[in-house]
Amino acid sequence: MTTLQPVDRLEIQVLVDNVTDSLSSTPPFVTREWTRLQRQGMWIQAGAALCCANHGLSLVITAHTAGGPRTLLFDGGPVEYAVERNGVRLGVAFGAIGAVMLSHGHWDHAAGCRARWA
């Protein structure tokens, strides 16, 4: 049996979550989409550079521990297009994902797992 290890920091990156809202206020501990995109080098705010909203859910969860980071894809979103497009724009290191977990088998949580991340 594996012993649970303490986590120093947990990072949750939203790839797909039904909506996008760049106008509402956010708590100070939340990194907005615009901020992440600018960190990745986007300085012109044009439609082609932005993430796309889509029905469903996909999260990239990274646990930072003394042994190094471990990354999990929690749900795969509705379509591979949304997962790939948003992941590339947000700077997701798809190669670092070591596991995938599906919350349930509905298409809007699993169909995006067909994406090619190589």
Keywords:
118 residues; 3 helices; 24% strand; 19% helix; alpha+beta; single chain; 4-stranded mixed beta sheet; globular
Order of helices and strands: EHEEHEH
How many structural domains can be distinguished in the coordinates? Answer: 1
The major sheet is characterized as: 4 strands, mixed
Helix content: 10-25%
Number of helices: 3
Q: How many strand elements? A: 4
> Based on CA inertia axes, which overall geometry fits?
globular
Strand order within the widest sheet? 1-2-3-4
Distance between the termini: 32 Å
Structural class: alpha+beta
The radius of gyration computed from the alpha-carbon positions, rounded to a whole number of angstroms, is 15 Å
Question: What are the low-pLDDT stretches, counting only 5+ consecutive residues below 50?
Answer: none
Q: Mean pLDDT, as a whole number?
A: 85
Strand content: 15-25%
Textual characterization of the structure:
The protein has one domain. It contains 3 helices and 4 strands; from the N terminus they run E-H-E-E-H-E-H. A 4-stranded mixed sheet has the order 1-2-3-4. Strand 3, helix 2 and strand 4 form a beta-alpha-beta unit. The termini are far apart.
Quick structural gist:
This protein is α+β, with helices and mostly antiparallel strands and 118 residues long.
Secondary-structure blueprint of this entry?
Blueprint: E1 9-16, H1 33-39, E2 58-65, E3 68-74, H2 80-90, E4 97-101, H3 107-110
Parallel strand pairs: 3-4
Antiparallel strand pairs: 1-2, 2-3
